[in-house]
Amino acid sequence: MKKLFAMLLAMAMVLSLAACAPKEPEPSQSGGGTTSTTETDPNKIDDNPTSADGKYEIAMITDLGDLKDKSFNEGTWNGVKLYAHNNGKTYKYYQPANRSEATDDDRYNAYKAAIEGGAKVIVAPGFLQESAMRRAAIENPDVNFIFIDGGVMQEKPTEYGADGVPLPNDSPVLQNVAGILFQEEQCGYLAGYAVVKEGFTKLGFTGGGGGTNPACCRYGYGFVQGANAAAAEMGINVEMRYSWEYGSNYIASPELQSMMQGWYTAGTEVVFACGGPMFQSVAAAASANDGFVIGVDVDQSGDSDTVITSAMKGLAQSVDFALDKYFGNGWSSIGGESTSLGAKEDAVGLPTASWSMKNFSVEEYETMLAGIKDGSVSVDADYSNLEQGYSNLTLTVE
Amino acid sequence: MTFLIRQTLIYAVPLMIVALAGVFAERSGIIDLALEGIMIFGAFIGVLFVNMVQEAGVFDQAKADGDWLALQGFAMLAMLAAAAAGAVFSLLLSFASVNLKADQTIGGTALNLMAPALVLFFIRIIADQNVLNMARGDAPSWFMLRKTDLGFSRTDDLGFLGETFIHQVYLVTYICILLFVVLSVVLYRTKFGLRLRSCGENPQAADSLGINVYQMRYAGTTISGALAGMGGFVYALTTANCSSNGDVAGFGFLALAVMIFGNWKPLNIAGAALLFGLFKCIAASYTSIDINGDGICMLKEIGISAHVYRMLPYIITLVVLAFTSKKSRAPKAEGIPYDKGQR
Is the CB of B138 less than 8 angstroms away from the CB of A263? Predict the structure, then answer.
């Protein structure tokens, strides 16, 4: 009996060691409120600051997946942190319960917690938050909401007729919600154009949300158009495999990893991983097969050597833009509106600082970007046209 | 074909080793429902070990030099850490079921419920999110064996066997297969194995011949825990890019099914695991499987819905179980706490 107790005790010790060992002492930062230095590296700003009165005026509700997904959530959060830190505001993030299976109720509870925690403005990335946000926004007219990847919000959701045509919706527009949309098709286009110009001919696209996420759909459709345009200029034909499989929850999974192994083994050279943490599975498969990956939302070149470029949208900038409007009494210009940000606003593009392509130069990219800005290169945003005949591209939707 | 075999092995090996873990426990007379929980815990400790050693920079030089032996050694160490964690974790089950004579099914279920919660709790403390990843890089670039590691150039053709078994594989896979063979021999060809099995069939008789049943059952579950922990880590390393999120996608329960399916016998278990691994692989990547190497992916061309392929592993399990369950024979004394007084 004694031996057993000794053993159990030893086990308890091992467990507690495991718990404390990796917790490095973080440089003490009061995070928000008191500091006045301007910080540009979001990783140096505390994720969990404590405010003096326990109230946090800027709140963020995360989308599916983790806060540190190295993608969508993290990009938005970095914007919140930078703005709050540099302007002396208090901030806090809330994760809806049930992780990747979060329901509208889980999200609503997160909103409630944020508002009870003193939030005056809530940043919410992800179009999935719409119905929870509508409820919170109607109940709390004094709280303002910044809806990333979302449009104008009305009191009643738009309903669709049997033929898929939206029925007229005349319910009042919620003035405390500001929608921010990106023209993802433009950076998808640039990424597709770039990799084909770089010399790749077998491309892949794997997206999150099972084809229901408009942002992912726009990325993908733009990617296809860009690849086709470059192939047409070069007079070659390229192949593209296009899939929404194993992406519905935007998570990395063994199944996705083996599907990607299959793609790379079958000859695919570069895959656009368009779904936050799905990137992990794609990068692992690419690394095993000496293939390449295109990152999404933020510059992901730091996460894996396989990243050749990233289709970025300015999440942090857009948060900064909207928060600045809110705190600078300019809310009326964005509240109740939907702000669309694209190449013109410098909100989408490829990362030039970590450029790794050899045959396609930064100058050529700048020319292309300028073309999109002035409208001489047009990118179609209506992704329902995805499955059409392309002049120089064979699209296989799986 | 090469791809199919390689990928099947990747799925089958964790299943196989964890099913063998189940055999060791059940052959000694303890129902081991906790396989899933132990796998989760082992995977977590293994990934944590990798993460911390990477942070400490111990193997950075080896990685930079491309010293694959050192890196494989690193993977072995992580596997050992996972095995140790699994063994310790399984002591909870043996203590409850051997010393306290508690219901083993409930004990195992309790561990299954506890492991994900505990692991997520630690991961939240450590990483401030729900997934613990490697500190840097990805699993293939650190731990995968390629032909370039063995002195061949990238364009060398090693023939079918070479391409399949020494290119793009993980050494841990082979270590597991070796362990599987060795332990199967131990179970059937040694004194210790015979004694262990006798405790699962008729512990009273074993006791009357001077075998310490409690000790044997502890040995059985501890070996089982070590194997399951190891299997958990191998799963995380080879299929989940060396990350831990308090979940092994039900592989522990699948291993349990594989064990029953394999009738508590190692050879049958290996077969069952391979069968399951094969269909799991087909389910996930049927669009890219090219069996005869003519560039046509037959399964894709047939045009059957993806859902059918995804159901396949489970349908096959049901079908095979329906045919084999008549012959199924569990160890006789499993699940019954040993009571000396009942002799």
Answer: no
Separation in Å, CA of A343 to nearest CA in chain B: 32
B43 half-sphere exposure, CB direction, 13 A CA radius: 37
Q: Does B141 touch chain A (CB under 8 A)?
A: yes
* Domains along the sequence of chain B with CATH: 2-249 (1.10.3470)
Tens of pLDDT, residues A290-348: 899 999 988 988 888 899 999 999 898 899 989 999 998 888 888 888 888 988 888 89
Summarised one tens digit per residue, pLDDT across range A252-274 is 888 899 999 999 988 899 999 99
Confidence of residue A151 (pLDDT cuts 50, 70, 90): confident
Which CATH number belongs to the domain containing residue A264 in this structure? 3.40.50.2300
Q: A22–B287: do the CB atoms touch at under 8 Å?
A: no
Does residue A65 sit within a domain?
no
Q: Which residue matches tokens 């090693």?
A: B158
Cβ–Cβ < 8 Å for A4, B99: yes
Please indicate, yes or no, if residue A197 is contained in any of the structural domains: yes
End-to-end CA, chain B: 56
- The answer to whether position A246 is within a domain reads yes
Cα distance between residue A187 and residue A182, in whole Å:
10
Number of domains in chain A: 1
Residues sharing a CB contact under 8 Å with residue A124, sequence separation 6 or more, in sequence order: A60, A61, A63, A133, A145, A146, A147, A148, A150
Is residue A73 one of the residues assigned to a domain?
no
Q: Which helix (H) or strand (E) holds B309?
A: helix B306-324
Report ipTM for this prediction: 0.86
Domain that holds residue A215: 184-313+345-397
